[in-house]
Design brief:
alpha/beta, D-Maltodextrin-Binding Protein, domain 2, four-stranded mixed sheet, three-stranded antiparallel sheet
Length: 437
């Protein structure tokens, strides 16, 4: 899912849940009583239901396969999701099935006793993201969605600039060379579009560095490996190939508009952008143009090319079971988790432009049959073939570390600190706040 930086919320979650756990006399359900043929109603947390159809799609698909089980959605505000959900968990009002919106807080929920262990739920072979929910050797949620980061590009602007489309073999040097040629070519063609748009999130620099650099580990407090990635990002800004961080922040630029209104020829973004762009084009808020997806640029040529497996990053979205669920509903809840991870569910998500955690040939075919999706082989390869490493490793320290790294990103990209000074400050903060914890 889209990146969130919610370290402060992690502290609130921990405080709420630990208090609730210590004050509650409710024991964790030990049975797995079958619902048999009796009607069962499960509640499921979600957000932005009018614009996020995946929850109802999965609820309807499960009900079709299990007619005696109805899944009712409970909507939360997207921005304050974890805060509101935590309050409901503490008061006993949380739904039966809890959507794990952010891997960032999984460890905190587990430590607070909010989730049931779900090792009895069988997952299909080849599903991605399951390891993100393993704490102490036990799984506490299952993935149903996983958006990996790829390169979106505007084929019409590439043609206008006289630059060849990406071929799937780009390293970061190739990406930088293409940006330079696009900048010159677009200007010569009379276009005001920029070569690229890299949004202000720390993910745009750190996500790729963390996934691709051989010595990267955000939890060890050593961040020199970020240097070449920030050097490239600053070079793009300084050369005018993309809007500056300060411009994007001051003007509240959105990645949807920058790419959708053809203000940028290239954009690194999660695969959720495919469905977002189609929705915008259908609503008339984005231009209609030819576009495609290519693998993200690579650290070295060793993982570049359609004969290799490109390395990128992304976190899954998953479902967990409320530790206070009525034992009579537990079997149905586990069956819902198994369904959500299945190929049938994956195809239903792909049919609405959502990237599921399970990618199979039939899922690929379903996704690219959606009206408006590109149909070229490189787009299909980029969407379906990659080694996706986690942006947020599952650890109680992840939220704190990401907060430190977000400050590093702002300092470097805004120009308030040099790369070296910002990295040194981040390492110092890590030592003081995390240390050997």
């Amino acid at each position: 899912m889209k990146p969130r930086r919610l370290a402060a919320i992690g502290v609130a979650i921990s405080a709420f849940l630990l208090a609730a756990c210590s004050n509650s006399g409710t024991s964790t359900p030990s049975g797995t009583a079958s619902e048999g043929n009796q009607p069962v109603t499960l509640t499921l947390s979600g957000w932005s239901l009018s614009t996020t159809p995946e929850f109802q799609t999965l609820a309807d698909g499960f009900h079709k396969a299990h007619p005696n089980v109805t899944v009712q959605l409970k909507e939360y505000d997207a921005t304050n999701y974890d805060t509101l959900l935590t309050a409901d968990l503490a008061s006993g009002a949380a739904p039966d099935i809890i959507t794990m919106k952010n891997v960032l807080h999984v460890a905190t929920y587990v430590q607070g006793g909010a989730l049931l262990e779900v090792s009895s739920v069988t997952l299909p072979s080849g599903i991605s993201g399951a390891s993100a929910y393993v704490i102490g050797g036990k799984p506490y949620a299952v993935p149903y969605r996983l958006d990996s980061w790829v390169l979106f590009y505007n084929k019409d602007l590439f043609k206008k600039a006289g630059v060849a489309d990406p071929d799937g073999s780009w390293t970061w040097d190739d990406y930088m060379n293409a940006a330079s040629r696009l900048k010159a070519g677009l200007k010569a063609a009379g276009s005001t579009a920029m070569a690229a748009y890299e949004h202000t999130w720390q993910s745009l620099v750190q996500g790729f560095a963390n996934a691709q650099s051989p010595d990267a580990n955000i939890l060890d407090g050593k961040y020199a490996y970020l240097t070449p990635y920030y050097q490239r990002a600053l070079q793009l800004q300084n050369e005018g190939a993309q809007p500056t961080f300060n411009t994007a922040t001051a003007n509240n630029l959105t990645y949807e508009t920058e790419f959708g209104k053809q203000q940028a020829a290239m954009m690194l973004m999660g695969t959720w952008e495919a469905a977002s762009l189609l929705a915008q084009q259908s609503a008339g808020t984005a231009d209609t143009f030819n576009w495609g997806m290519a693998p993200a640029p690579q650290y070295s040529a060793a993982t570049a090319g359609t004969g290799s497996t490109p390395v990128t990053f992304g976190d899954p979205t998953g479902f967990a079971i409320n530790a206070k669920i009525d034992p009579a509903k537990l079997t149905a809840a586990k069956e819902f988790l198994a369904y959500a991870a299945s190929q049938d569910a994956a195809k239903s998500l792909a049919a609405i432009g959502i990237t599921p955690a399970l990618i199979t040939p039939s899922v690929v075919s379903t996704f690219f049959a959606v009206k408006g999706m590109p149909t070229d082989s490189l787009s299909k390869f980029a969407w379906s073939t990659h080694l996706t490493k986690p942006e947020n490793p599952t650890s109680a320290n992840t939220a704190t570390v990401q907060n430190i790294l977000n400050s590093l990103n702002t300092a470097v990209m805004s120009g308030s600190q040099s790369i070296g000074a910002a990295i040194a400050a981040a390492q110092s903060y890590f030592s003081n706040q995390v240390g050997n914890a």
